Amino acid sequence: MTSNTRREDEQPPEPTSLITSFPKDAIFDILTRLPRYEYSTLSLVSKQFRSLVRSPELYERRSLIGVTEPFFYALFYDSQSRNTRWNILHRKANGNLRLALIHSLPAMDDYGSFVAVGSSIYVFGGSDDHTKYRALKIDYDHTKYRALCIDCRFHTVEHLPSMPVPMSHAVVDIIDGKIYVIGDYYRGSNTVMAVFNTETKLWELGMTKPNIDFAGAFPTHCVVMDDKIYVRFIFKSFVYEPKKSQWEMEEMLSSNMWSYACVVDNILYYYDHWGNKLRTYDPKQRYWGAVKGLDLEELVPKRNIHWIHTVSYSGKLALIIAYEGGRTPLYLWSAEISLEIRQGGEIWGKVEWSDEVL
C-alpha cells in the first residue's frame, strides 16, 4: 500500500524546470550568451544547472564564439580562517559590485608573485619569513621553488614544475606566452631570472639567469611595455629586452618612485600619493605626465589610506583604494576610469563608476 505522506528522511524532488527539458545543445547556446556573474545564481537552481555552468564544454563554446569577460581577482586576509584568501569582484542582484570569497580555492601566501594569463592566474614563490612558516608547519624551502596555476573558470589549482632556482621578493610578467620571474636569490645577494613557457608548461632552462648583479638591490615592481620588462628596484629602474637578452638602466623612469603600477595601451600608470596625482609614463617619449580631468581630492581623500593600487581592467583603469578606519576593519573602495588621449598627447580620465566593494 502506498501513502501520500513523505517520510521525514526523504529529500523532496527538485522542481522540474522548463528549460532543462530543452536539448543540451540549446541550453548551452543560451548559457554561453549570459554574463558569467549570473552563473553563481543559476548554480543554486538545481544540480543540473550547477553541473552545466561548471562544464568545460560551456567555456569552450564561449571561447569559440568570442564571449569573454574580464574579472577582477584579489587576495585579502580572511579574519575567520586567519589566512590570505582569493576574492572575486561579483555583481549582486541589486547591481552593486562586491568582493566575494572564493571558498573552493585554498589559502595563498601573500608574499607570492602573481600574473594573469587568459583565464588563468600563475603563482610563483612565497614568503621570506621563516617564523611564519614554522608557525604554519609549512616547508619554508619548498615555497621558494613553488609554482601553481589557478584555472579561473572552475577555481581549481594545478601544481606546476618547481622553479629552477629559489628566489624571494619576486616580480613577474608575461611576453609572448613566456612568464619572466625575476627575484632575489635567497641564498645570496644577487638577482636571478627564470622563464616559464605557458604553452609547454615547462621552464626554459636555457633562459635562466642565475647571477644578475644589481648591487644587492631586489626588485619591487614590474610592468611590460612594448615587449620589454620594466623593473623597479629600490632606487633605480631597469629595462630588460628579451630579444636582445640585455638589461639597461632607465634613467627617466628612475626619476619617480613608481609602485603598484599598471599598463594601458603601452602607457604606465601609478598613483602618486605625495602629489595626489595619477601619473603616466610613455616609454617611447621617455616622458612623465599626469592624467587630467579627475577630481582626486574628492575621489582619494588623504585620510586613513592604507594603500592604493592601479589595475588594468578591460582597456580601462581601475583604482583600488584600501582604507583603515581606526578601530573599524579595513574596507575597499574601487573606481573605474576610462582614458582618452587627446590632441597634443594629453591623457584625460573620466570616472565611470566608484563604490565600496568590501
Automatic annotation (TrEMBL):
SUPFAM superfamilies: F-box domain, Kelch motif. InterPro entries: F-box-like_dom_sf, F-box/kelch-repeat_ARATH, F-box_dom, Kelch-typ_b-propeller, Kelch_FKB95. This is F-box domain-containing protein. It comes from Brassica campestris (Field mustard). It holds the Pfam family F-box. Residues 16-62 form the F-box domain. PROSITE patterns: FBOX.
